[in-house]
Amino acid sequence: MSKPGINNGGKKRTVEQEIKRRTVVAFTVFFVCLCCGGLVFAWLYNQPQSADGVQPTLRTALEANEKLFSLFYSKRREAKVFKKTDAVTDVRVNGDVGMDGELDTTWRLKVARNPGDTLILTLDDIKALPKTEVVFDFKCVEGWSQVTWWGGVRFSDFMKKYNLVPQTAMRYVGMVTPDEAYYVGNDMPSMLQPQTLLCYEMNGEPLPQNQGYPLRLIIPVKYGIKHLKRIGVIYFSNEKPKDYWAEQGYDYYSGL
């Protein structure tokens, strides 16, 4: 009995011949793609780096991603919330830049409303606003996440209370630690999202020093690198504020 064959334009191959042919084609395509990928990687890797340490092509791609994310962003979108009992008690610290030394009672929050017009607030001034809590999955760019419980005041409520509504027309909010070692910029729509907090509590207790005492940012729609700890200064801008990790080559938007 003859072996079954495959008709290919009048030429009949055995099943074994067809398997061999397809295997050769598959490996050829694989190695061609591998070589092309290697050449593209080498081209990107050898491009001159810009001031933020990222090749211009990669930075252009990151900026394109930011524009795409921004188009579909909605202030009504909220991070998934959890029960307080789901929150961990041993909360990880995602970095300590700008956290050298302990602050005393002389801390004040400086809010630069306009050039030459700075509002000075105490922690009691902030606590005078309605308290809001959020329990969400805090995500770090290092790849870990934890369900954590935070308390403070909505940034949107803070803006209304201290007559900062005109500043909400600006595109960005910048924040800086008191020692100016750490700084972030966040887009205004994300800052006005109802889960974004000026936070002074963790797990129902005052913030520990290593978590940003006395006041930190919690912004659940962003990765942890945007949650600035130990806020010293808040300001507003239509240009992107300085951002510590964006200067190290990370995505400026860092949205989830």
Count, helices: 5
- Unreliable runs: none
Helix content: 25-40%
Q: Tally the beta strands.
A: 12
Q: Roughly what is the average pLDDT, rounded to an integer?
A: 88
Taking the alpha carbons of the first and last residues, their distance comes to: 63 Å
Provide the structure class: alpha+beta
Oligomer kind: single chain
In the sheet with the most strands, the strands line up as 4-3-12-7-8
DSSP strand content: 15-25%
Any idea what the radius of gyration is?
26 Å
Give an account of the 3D structure.
- It contains 5 helices and 12 strands.
- By secondary structure, the chain is an alpha+beta fold.
- The strands form 3 sheets. The chain has a 5-stranded mixed sheet with strand order 4-3-12-7-8. Strands 5, 6, 9, 10 and 11 form a 5-stranded antiparallel sheet that branches. A two-stranded antiparallel sheet has the order 1-2.
- The longest helix has 31 residues, at 15-45.
- The chain is elongated, with a radius of gyration of 26 Å.
- It starts with a strand and ends in a 19-residue tail after the last strand.
- The model has no long low-confidence stretch (mean pLDDT 88).
Concise summary:
The chain is an alpha+beta fold.
Characteristic terms for this protein:
256 residues; 5-stranded mixed sheet; 5-stranded antiparallel sheet; 5 helices; 12 strands; 25% strand; elongated
Topology diagram in text:
Layout: E1 5-8, E2 11-14, H1 15-45, H2 56-72, E3 109-114, E4 117-121, H3 123-127, E5 132-139, E6 145-154, H4 155-161, E7 172-176, E8 183-187, H5 188-191, E9 197-202, E10 205-206, E11 216-218, E12 233-237
Parallel strand pairs: 3-12
Antiparallel strand pairs: 1-2, 3-4, 5-6, 6-9, 7-8, 7-12, 9-10, 9-11
